[in-house]
Amino acid sequence: MKPFRFLFITQEDPFYVRVFFEEFLRHYPRQEEIKAVVIAPTMGKQSLVKLARQMYDFYGANDFVRVGIRYVYYRVRNVMARFLAADRFYSIRQVCNYYKIPVLYTENINDENFLSYIRRLDLDLIISVAAPQVFRRALIAIPRKGCINIHNAKLPKYRGMLPNFWQMYHGERNVGTSIHRINDKIDDGEILLQKESPISPGETLDSLILRTKKIGAHLMIQAIEEMKSGSLEPTANSSADATYFGFPSKEDVCEFRRKGYRLI
């Protein structure tokens, strides 16, 4: 039987996406199937200044400083890990190096040179985990079984950005996790697997995202195994029932806090 072959497309996020890969690689039984983890520019093609401004508006002065210190600490520890033994992981690349998974970098996941390279990998599947760029049709068509994405909401509700934030904002008691096929629209492909878990009283957005990244890693393993066995039963991701949310504004964050929620 021909071996199953897949790769991930993601962005370098030491806080949350790294946790997904730690959990996935710790538990996935056949790591030789993973041909690469592709890392694209964080938050798409935004400049560092624009990204910093967006994060400042989101977190506010105090939390922005706290997150900034944490980010610098992770970057320094990641560099130190090249020379000294580390007791934990501080980047996705560090996780992949530990498990001997190749890491690739590209500025544009839809660039023809990149597409030509991954065509030669003879892939069955491409998996998006917080991929910062939209998959175009040429990319979607490459793997035999298509491309799939993990989204931290119970689709078709809460399509778009930061779904954990919006589920808390709207007072949901449970948070969803969905594995769905990728088509040429945002969070629109048919749903392969879904799971709900309760939002704990007093839980911060930070702790909820960390927890759902681990839940998502195990759901992704289940999706891959069922895809290989042919036992997946897709369900419709109805556009008529969909809701979509963009990145929260300063006013949205103020209202989030007024409702008694905390970011970190």
N→C terminal distance: 48 Å
CATH class: Alpha Beta
What is the element string, with H for helices and E for strands?
EHEHHEHEHEEHEEHEH
CATH topology: Rossmann fold
Using the 3D structure, state the CATH architecture.
Answer: 3-Layer(aba) Sandwich
Question: Which residues form runs of ≥5 with pLDDT under 50?
Answer: none
Instruction: Profile the largest sheet.
Output: 7 strands, mixed
Instruction: State the helix count.
Output: 8
Residues in helix, %: 25-40%
* Widest sheet: strand ordering: 3-2-1-4-5-7-8
CATH homologous superfamily placement: Formyl transferase, N-terminal domain
Shape annotation? globular
Q: Report the mean per-residue pLDDT as an integer.
A: 94
Beta strand count: 9
Description:
The structure is a single chain. This protein is globular. A 7-stranded mixed β-sheet has the order 3-2-1-4-5-7-8. It has 8 helices and 9 strands. Strand 1 (6-11), helix 1 and strand 2 form a beta-alpha-beta unit. The protein has one domain (6-258): Formyl transferase, N-terminal domain (Rossmann fold), CATH 3.40.50.170. The chain is α/β, with parallel strands linked by helices. Helix 1 (17-27) packs across helix 7.
Notable features of this structure?
single chain, 264 residues, alpha/beta, two-stranded parallel ribbon, globular
Summarize the structure.
The protein is an alpha/beta fold and about 260 residues long.
Furnish the topology, listing elements before pairings.
Elements: E1 6-11, H1 17-27, E2 34-40, H2 48-80, H3 92-98, E3 103-105, H4 112-119, E4 125-128, H5 137-140, E5 147-151, E6 159-160, H6 163-169, E7 174-181, E8 191-198, H7 205-229, E9 244-245, H8 250-258
Parallel strand pairs: 1-2, 1-4, 2-3, 4-5, 6-9
Antiparallel strand pairs: 5-7, 7-8
Helix pairs in contact: 1-7
